[in-house]
Write a structure and sequence with these properties.
This protein is an all-beta fold. The chain is built from 2 helices and 38 strands.
Length: about 550
């Protein structure tokens, strides 16, 4: 039994549609109700003919919404994110049990927000009868947008808005001539309520009716990825494997890095070896990398580490080398000094000048580069057994070492620096197992306040680390780094597990989410970086003698 919704008006916020069961018999048994008029033909025969639908919606101030099914047979949508490396436009073919065939083309769009869609209906030359496209919502049912009356015609383009009230649409309905003598229009097909807006919202969607005389297929249609089964709720995940290089790009002695060296918003692939630093720039459509370029014209690496980060705040990652030397002073005796050298990015290379940016005494347990004070410049972070110190960047050098923890902060499973609370400042993170004497079996965060790392906070309430590595990167595009554990078959999970940083400002990582459905790691390197410029970190692996494999992060609104 259908339950009426409360009164709504066009100003109500759109709701998330929920699919209601539909059967083939009920769908074909329901023909649109018409007002009928008497028309007298010249031969004196009285014929009943339907008055035409209005092509525009009548917006009411309020309405009582009854939860009915959209008319016609429901067909699934195809997830463009999981096909063709997420590159648009994409075209999907449908053959229906009603003897029709149509193509749906989903095109990219930079104008419409996610709650708007531009829909177009066209008929190919093989189409012989009238076709219509209608918007549908719970309150008012069908509203015909336009139609064609034969082949090689276009009904035009229509901007629809998401919602259940008059003037809005929860899905669209495709209509065809039928009924007595083919004079009435039958509600033939609609697209899955649950995923119509979720997957295609904000896009240009063109429906091309290819034929109305094809061999019928079974119903419901077969559906597997990238097709989204009718009524299912897609889950956030990493998409299927995609080879982003035609051959192996990492060999013996090579170390890969990801950073945006040319400021285009896409992470570039950087390969460092004993001879040079080469860069494969991310291509314009975010589906691969261009041919490698020599960015240094010779070797550039550090004996204590090589890094890539934007230290001067120009939006381009610079090359950083840290080298050690032994020195003697009367106060300290023989000790290690770490010299930091920088070659700035100049779009297509790292500049020829090797700049001395400072020397540090700290960093015996690790050196990192991240922006801890939200000035747009990566700072040098030095981890030692007794403290964590920071050397702030002024755009031309690193300043004096400052104590940011007043005590040790080192994880038995790793120490990391990433912005987990979305305030633009990298926070300190330690991952511990049961061997830790302090903060054991948990992930502890000390959030940056711009001049120090705050008190320790338990963000997992228990152990969270991967047998093949633990990482922190923003996989859902909300500006907060999430916790990622990569596991192999030596663990119960045997998958890549994500715990997302709370998007509502809570200081914790959420519940475990399986993002790969099985093991996913490289025998050489496993990394997480935004390879396609959508602000979501993708899962990337390097295997011996194999192309680089990317699994893009797919996140649904």
């Amino acid at each position: 039994m259908n339950k009426p919704y409360s009164h709504c008006s066009p100003s109500n916020q759109p709701r998330t549609p929920v699919r209601r069961p539909s059967s083939e018999a009920a769908a074909w048994g329901r023909i649109k109700q018409y007002r009928w008029s008497l028309v007298v033909l010249v031969v004196g025969v009285i014929v009943l003919m339907p008055l035409p639908h209005s092509a525009s919606a009548t917006v009411q101030s309020s309405c009582t919404c009854t939860a009915n099914n959209p008319p016609g047979l429901v067909y699934p949508v195809v997830d463009w994110q999981a096909a063709n490396m997420g590159v648009l436009p994409q075209t999907y073919g449908y053959v229906t049990s009603g003897g029709d065939a149509f193509n749906v083309t989903v095109g990219n769009n930079i104008v419409h927000p996610p709650n708007q869609m531009l829909v177009t209906l066209v008929s190919s030359s093989a189409v012989t009868s009238k076709k219509e496209i209608a918007s549908w919502n719970t309150c008012t049912g069908d509203t015909v947008l336009g139609g064609t009356n034969g082949g090689n015609q276009s009904a035009g383009a229509f901007l629809i808005n998401e919602g259940m009230c008059p003037g809005q649409a929860e899905t669209i309905v495709l209509r065809k001539s039928g009924g007595l003598f083919g004079w009435s229009m039958v509600d033939a097909y609609n697209f899955d309520l649950q995923n119509f807006w979720r997957i295609w919202g904000g896009k240009n969607v063109v429906i091309q009716w290819v034929s109305d005389n094809v061999r019928s297929s079974s119903y419901p249609p077969a559906c597997s990825s990238p097709c989204v089964p009718i009524g299912s709720t897609p889950v956030d995940r990493f998409a299927p494997n995609e080879a982003w290089t035609s051959q192996a790009v990492v060999g013996s002695g090579d170390t890969p890095y990801f950073a945006d060296v040319n400021g285009d918003g896409k992470q570039d692939l950087i390969i460092v070896n004993s001879s040079t630093v080469s860069v494969m720039l991310g291509n314009s459509n975010g589906s691969g990398f261009l041919a490698p370029l020599d960015f240094t014209g010779g070797p550039f690496f550090g004996t204590a580490g090589t890094f890539f980060a934007d230290v001067d705040g120009d939006g381009k990652a610079d090359a950083i080398a840290v080298n050690t030397r032994r020195v003697f002073s009367p106060k300290l005796g023989m000790h290690i000094v770490r010299d930091i050298s920088v070659r700035r990015s100049i779009w297509t290379s790292f500049g020829p000048t090797i700049e001395a940016w400072g020397s540090a005494l700290g960093g015996s347990m690790g050196i990192f580069f991240a922006d801890v004070n939200k000035d747009g410049k990566a700072d040098a972070i030095l981890v030692d057994s007794g403290t964590v110190t920071v050397m702030l960047s002024n755009g031309n050098s690193f300043g004096a070492e400052q104590d940011w923890t007043s005590g040790p902060f080192i994880g038995t499973r790793g120490t990391f620096f990433a912005d987990v609370d979305g305030d633009g400042q990298a926070d300190a993170i330690e991952v511990n197992d049961s061997t830790a004497t302090v903060n054991s079996n948990t992930v502890t965060v000390r959030r940056s306040n711009g001049f120090s790392f705050g008190p320790p906070e338990d963000w997992t309430g228990g152990p969270f680390f991967g047998s093949k590595g633990t990482f922190f990167a923003d996989v859902d595009g909300d500006g907060r780094a999430d916790a990622i554990a990569v596991n192999d078959n030596t663990t119960v999970s045997n998958t890549t597990t994500v715990r997302r940083a709370d998007m509502n400002g809570g200081h914790f990582f959420g519940p475990n989410e399986d993002w790969t459905g099985g093991p996913y790691f490289g025998d050489l390197f496993t990394m997480f970086a935004d390879a396609n410029g959508d602000h979501r970190a993708d899962a990337i692996v390097f295997n011996t003698g194999s192309p680089m494999i990317v699994r893009r992060a797919i996140v649904y609104p």
